[in-house]
Amino acid sequence: MSKKAKVKKVKLGKLEKREARYGYLFILPWFIGVLVFLLIPLVQSFQFSLADIRMTPFGRLITFVGHENYTQIWLEDKDFPVMLVSYFLETLLSVPIIVVFALIIAMLLNGRIKFKGAFRLIFFLPVIIVSGPVMLMLTGQGATTINTMNVQAINSALNQFLPQYIAKSISEVFGNMVTILWYSGVQILIFLSALQKIDASLYEAAKMDGGSEWECFWKITLPTIKSMILLNAVYTVIATSNNESNPIINIIQNAMFAGNKGYGYASAMAWMYSVAETLIIGIVALVLVTKRDAYDKQVKKVKKDRVKQNRAIKRARRRGRRNDGKIKKALNSK
Amino acid sequence: MMERLKKPSILNKKINKDKIRKVLKGSREKDGLIKQIIVYALLVCIGFIYLYPILNMISSSFMNLEDLLDTSIKWIPSSLYLDNYKKAALNMDYLNSFVQSIIVAGVPTVINVIVCSFVGYGFARFNFRGKKLLMAILIFSYIIPPQITMMPTYVLYADLKLVGSLWSFVLPALLGQGINAPIFILIFYQFFRQIPKVLIEASQIDGAGYFKSFRRIALPSAIPAIITVFLFSFVWYWNESYLTQLYVNGVFGNGSWTTLIVELKKFDSGYNPQLAMVVDGAAQSNNESIRMAAIMLSILPVLIMYFVLQRYFVESIDRTGITGE
After folding, report:
1. Which of B40, B264, B323 sits opposite A190 (nearest CB)?
2. Is ipTM beyond 0.90?
3. Which of A15, A18, A26, A241 to mutate to test the interface with B (most CBs of B within 10 A)?
4. Which residues of chain B neighbour A31 with C-beta distances below 8 Å?
5. What is the number of other CB atoms lying within 10 angstroms of the CB of residue A74?
6. Which of A197, A283, B153, B292 makes a 20 to 30 Å CA pair with A210?
7. Which domains does chain B have, with CATH numbers?
């Protein structure tokens, strides 16, 4: 603790100062961009969401209305709340599917496989060609549903056991299986390169001790790539949320230019949408965040104890000194 | 193997059994046949599911109306029918939109590469106060959905009269806020960190300034990263239709720019009735084949790019360095 404080007190040298200045210079364009296109719009859009904005021939007319936009969306809009809930459920459902699926493919590709390059090429292809209109049109023409994959039986079974809105989300996930798989290209590659970086000697050692491949997977592979799972899950949430085949963002855009809604209304929608997305990311992170292992925990505990002890000693000394002063005073006054 | 065959014939049977077992279940050096079959079967099946929509699209884009209605024809059209492509191309004003797409995707991409490499170098090479906070902002800016900043940005562009011009894409790119710019900055950051600092210091001792050492030493060694960023940025700008339609094309289609993807989005509404086929005296609107041909035409350029430069695309993930050292 005290060492760190000392380092900070040392003044930066001339060269370091100059370097820091140049560092700021190099990132200056980006920083201006953050101000102009991120922070200021963020504040503005929050203001917008609390206001009613009308386009008049004389310019924008902004009147402050408080939380009216939000209440209006929840009470009067017939599409948005439903969409938001189903977006929430569908994303929560499809994220694990995509991540697990990507992991399986990556594991398959990680072995000694011929035509590895060709397979990698196929699985990454959707990342290149997927865009909102392409996706919408392909689904519209039924090109993304494989006829042989009959999901009717699953659907009817689900309807019996689950409440309707959950069953609907699940069956939608099944119906759009191809679409979901198409969003796992990047994740496959991330997993693949993570798997290739695991030290092969770990597996050898495990096999020496009689570990099966199943055990190796749970005890070595999974713990090693755990952080990548979190990364992939978060990436999946972001990718599917900002995707144009997601109906919500189209609703927001339409609301922007609708006569009876306008910017304020759309901003309020965007804010709620972001809150929902953040919530999903939060849930994902909460589930997947890596717990420290036992050794780390103990080390931390010892350190904490030491800090506590030091503090106690200092306190005792300080008290001692104060008491010294009191005693001296008392002695002097006498 | 030859040695084993020479062994007495009494043992032959057992050896054969062992051999079969070895082939099926595998040994330490080689995977077993069973496992191999399962793995390949799974990969081929999943690969088929992946390619299914694309194959479907290609096959039905060549079908004429009779083929389309004929239930006995599923995959292979009876003849190579190219009229769909002609109609789709005419409808999308292909040549014009193609050239414009390249400009709309290309110009911001070049700027993106330059600015992101610059900023990435700043983050990687220099130490300054607040660096960690700024990196956190960088990642935060990727996480928040663009819809939330869309309205104020649109208002800003409208005030500056930039809606419907290419400036609405160039300006954010110039300030390091182009599409997915945080990822590109991180790629460059990762790359420039791997360049030995000594190299840059040596150039500075020889009299190069900070900018010169960036341009002469750091940039040339980051060519793989530059290629990766260029390709991805191009593809993402090419495929972007939401923001393109809003900013560059103009919501009411009043902008002077259009792209293939935006044209595809408007495909059905913009279909010219004069080009529609006439069947039994009634004008048919777009049929499935023409739509498929339109999709094919709009993704063909990136598809070709992908197959030619596949190495750079597929290896890009390793380059980002997100999976650790």
Report:
1. B323
2. no
3. A26
4. 134
5. 13
6. A197
7. 93-266 (1.10.3720.10)
Listed residue (B264, B62, B143, B182) closest to A131, CA to CA: B264
Other beta carbons within 10 angstroms of residue A22's beta carbon come to 18
Q: Do residues B299 and B73 touch, judged by C-beta distance below 8 A? A: no
The answer to whether B18 contacts chain A (CB < 8 Å) is: no
SS3 breakdown of chain B: % helix, strand, coil, rounded to 5?
Answer: 70, 0, 30
User: Given an 8 Å threshold on Cβ–Cβ distance, is A128 in contact with B131?
Assistant: no
Only one residue has tokens 């414009």, namely B100
State the burial class of residue B255 (Cβ atoms within 10 Å of its Cβ: 0-12, 13-18, 19+): buried
- List the domain boundaries for chain A: 70-294, 297-323
What gap in Å lies between CA B209 and CA B229, rounded to an integer? 26
Name the β-bridge partners of A54: A61
Report how far residue B226's alpha carbon sits from residue B187's, in angstroms, rounded to the nearest whole number. Answer: 9
Tokens standing for A73? Answer: 């969306």
Cβ–Cβ under 8 Å, residues A85 and A165: yes
- C-alpha to C-alpha distance for A27 and A24, rounded to whole angstroms: 5
> Which element (helix H / strand E) includes B100?
helix B94-125
B7 to chain A nearest CA, in Å?
31
> In angstroms, rounded to a whole number, what is the distance separating the alpha carbons of residues B322 and B307?
25
Burial of A58 (0-12, 13-18, 19+ CB in 10 A): exposed
Q: Which single residue is written with the structure tokens 């983050």?
A: B123
Q: CATH fold of A70-294, please?
A: MetI-like fold (1.10.3720)
CA–CA distances in Å: residue B189 to residues A23, A234, B182: 13, 21, 10
Nearest CA in chain A to B295: A134
Q: For residue B58, give the chain A residue with the closest CA.
A: A143
* CA–CA distance, A81 with A104 (Å, rounded to integer): 35
